[in-house]
Amino acid sequence: MEKPILTDEILASIREITHNKAEGDNHKKALTFYELKDMLGFGDLKTRRILQELKKEGKLEVVNIWRENILGIVTKIPGYILVDKDTKISTD
After folding, report:
1. Which domain holds residue 40?
2. 8, 24, 33, 68: which is deepest, by most CB within 10 A?
3. Does a structural domain hold residue 61?
4. Kind plus residue range of the DSSP H or E element containing 81
């Protein structure tokens, strides 16, 4: 049996990162995959598995957010927000 990747400590770190990012609008609290990866200090695979586990447990909402790419073009990309199972947000 595979050991769960998601621990209470990791979940608390993600909550703190997103809470400190912005007050108010949930979309402003959303983080990209690479922002989460860098802030947590994990590699791609571990970060991806953590996000998959959170999504499976209903604790992760995926929203479209606007970010400027390396060419200076603003585009929509997936952003990730922690949510309570009972609290779903709009992805508009």
Report:
1. 8-82
2. 33
3. yes
4. strand 74-82
Return d(Cα 84, Cα 78) in angstroms, integer: 19
**Residue keyed to tokens 């990209």:** 32
| pLDDT single digits (tens) 13-69 | 887 877 666 555 556 778 899 999 998 899 999 999 999 999 998 988 999 999 999
C-alpha dihedral, 13 to 14 to 15 to 21, nearest 10°: 110
The CATH number that applies at residue 23 is 1.10.10.10
CB atoms within 10 A of CB 77: 13
pTM for this model (two decimals): 0.72
